[in-house]
Every structure is written in structure tokens, then in C-alpha cells.
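Section 5: illustrative case.
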């Protein structure tokens, strides 16, 4: 029980640090690489939420693939649209 709470607190703190990192990166406006750094950070955060807070780490493979796949498809589409846009 204590280890579960410790793991959740560690995960929450990791999410908080990643969010703060993205907040600090907002100052680099116009940097093309920044979009992809933020997408990677969002992917890490999304996977942490799926695994820890939604408790799908030990769920059937189909559920994990469905949610993780949705996350990476959405982020992939955003990345492709950003990479192919003119601005």
C-alpha cells in the first residue's frame, strides 16, 4: 500500500516536472524543434497517465494497445501536420 502511494506520488511529481519544463520552453517561440520536443514530452506524460492513473499497466493487451495507439496516432498526426505546414 505504501509503495503504491509512493509510486503515484513519484508519477505525479514527474508529470508536474514535465509540465513545468514545457512551460519554461514556451519562451523559445519560432523554434521548429520545440514542437517535436513538446510532442515527446506529451507522449511521456500521456503514457504515464495511461499506465499509472488509469491503471492499464496490468490490463489486457488490447486495452493498452488501444489507448497507447490512440495517443501516438494523435501525436503523430499533429507532428506530421506541423512538419508539412508552411509556417
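Designed sequence:
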Amino acid at each position: 500500500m505504501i509503495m503504491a502511494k509512493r509510486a503515484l506520488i513519484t508519477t505525479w511529481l514527474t508529470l508536474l516536472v514535465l509540465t513545468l519544463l514545457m512551460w519554461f520552453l514556451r519562451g523559445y517561440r519560432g523554434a521548429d524543434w520545440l514542437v517535436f520536443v513538446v510532442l515527446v514530452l506529451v507522449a511521456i506524460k500521456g503514457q504515464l497517465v495511461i499506465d499509472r492513473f488509469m491503471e492499464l499497466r496490468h490490463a489486457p493487451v488490447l486495452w493498452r494497445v488501444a489507448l497507447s495507439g490512440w495517443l501516438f496516432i494523435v501525436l503523430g498526426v499533429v507532428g506530421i501536420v506541423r512538419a508539412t505546414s508552411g509556417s
